[in-house]
Specification:
With 422 residues, the protein is mainly beta. The protein has a single domain, classed as Outer membrane protein transport protein (OMPP1/FadL/TodX) (Porin), CATH 2.40.160.60. 6% of the residues lie in helices and 53% in strands. The chain is built from four helices and 21 strands. Strands 1-3-4-6-7-8-9-12-13-16-17-18-19-21 form a 14-stranded antiparallel beta barrel. Strand 6 and strand 7 form a beta hairpin. The longest helix has 8 residues. The termini are far apart.
Amino acid sequence: MAASTALTGLVLSAATQASGFRIPELSATGLGMANAVVANAEEPGALIYNPAAMAFHEGMVFNGGLAGLKLNVHVDPENGEATDSTGKDSFVVPNLYFMQQISDQWSWGFGLSAPFGLETKWPAGTFQTFADVAALTTPLIAALEPEASKIEMVNLNPNVAYRLGPNTSVSAGVMYYMLRELVFNTQGISIDGDGNDFGWNLGIQHVAGPWSFGASYRSRVKVEAKGSVDASSVLPPGAVTSSDATAEVEFPDMLQLGARYAFNEAWAVEFDYEWTGWSAFDVVEITHSTDLPGDCLCSTNNWENSSAYRLAASYNLNDATQLRFGYSWDETPQPDKYFSARVPDADRQLLSIGIGYDFGTWELDAGYMYVLFDNRTVDRPASSYLTQIATGGGTDPNGTDAYNGEYESSVHLLALSASVKF
């Protein structure tokens, strides 16, 4: 049972800068405008957000870059010592997009991004309730206390775009989600795994004078993660302590709608709305070898669909230089009833600035973003749920008073990218 519980951590992995464990920053251009670029048909750095914009670019365009992230996650637990997450707190996330115009109507492109991920790690004893209940019942309860959780993935995304007329284009693409590294440790159990699967995406772009409109939809993707479990430190001598294990992880679908207005040759603003179908992340069913205790675990998360509201402005300082500004408010999909410290999520605000310099054939872009999470207080009523787990009444501590406390998070992001036109 304890080993089965460990696999739950595969899908509870990150505190990131959009709702849940999503990373929406796909280019330096987008980052500098708080990701409000789905209606932007002009900038190469917007193509990865809405590939339908390919139809408004000529020749070949390549955009690639890196985003550096500095993450801080802090908890002051009701029963335990205040501490910061001790996992890796600095990350570099790559992104690229290439497109080629085939004819006056057709274009094709290919994008690479990392739409989900990051890492948390908690020292032993951070959530003391696990140890307190274990001392009164069984040491296996201590194995439920979270330690390291990590997810690293890449989305490979080829697309085609078709220009319906001088002002409108549509696109369609295939998404290939590669879960490159999935790691989960409790204070006594380790697990690793990976997996991959396909999804699809659609886009539309319309330009009408100073106005432009865009929409992008990306499907849900269900990935079967295959891994191995090692519970040698918590199971008795002579017991089977390792096994293969699998879990189906369903990543959410996403809908983005945007409207952009250019007041003149210098100023433009854009407003985007983003809906993320986090209700896909409800019950995760985990199975492992029958040689280990227990056959299956259902981990209940019951996340809710969430919304984000994004506003951006750009100012052309001269023919070559563009200044960018952005603000976004993102709501959390994670209800208190199913809160887990593996993803200490909260509503957040995103503030960003950016700059682009056009050399003609080349364009360089840079952006900075600060993400401030609302402080989150978890105050679940005291219960005997962990004791029930010890006596065979379940295996899922999500939403229990074991995670009561104050949670604070923030993220700094800096992105650099280059575009070249052929």
